[in-house]
């Protein structure tokens, strides 16, 4: 039973890490596009620079959660599941907030 819970916890933490890294990647792409626009992309660059701490923090917490699931203890797997899953949920909300702010309307 403990091995199955460990696998489930690892998968959830891995998905959380992927979502957090998706947020990091989206900010990188958005920042790159804003830099190419020069002065007209200044406000976007400022916004992206202010969001790096959130993106890096969620990615770090999700990575910690994934590393914790590598153990053989169910309580530690539970902590890893909560950290990885929680970081993924928070990163998804932050990504949705960023996307809705810069969504191009036709």
Explain this structure to me?
By secondary structure, the chain is mainly alpha-helical. The protein is 87% helix and 0% strand. It is built from 3 helices and no strands. The protein has helices spanning 2-37, 42-68, 74-102. The radius of gyration is 17 Å and the shape is elongated.
Q: Report the sheet with the most strands, covering strand number, pairing sense and barrel closure.
A: none
User: Total number of β-strand segments?
Assistant: 0
Could you say which overall geometry the principal axes of the C-alpha atoms support? Answer: elongated
Low-confidence spans: pLDDT under 50, at least 5 residues?
none
First CA to last CA: what distance?
52 Å
Mean pLDDT: 89
Please state the structural category: mainly alpha
Radius of gyration: 17 Å
Question: What is the percent of helical residues?
Answer: over 70%
- Could you tell me the strand content as a percent range? under 5%
H/I helix tally = 3
Note the run of SSEs as H and E: HHH
Strand-helix topology:
Blueprint: H1 2-37, H2 42-68, H3 74-102
Relevant terms:
106 residues, mainly alpha, 87% helix, elongated, membrane, transmembrane
Can I get a quick summary?
By secondary structure, this protein is mostly helical. The protein has 3 helices and no strands. The model has no long low-confidence stretch (mean pLDDT 89).
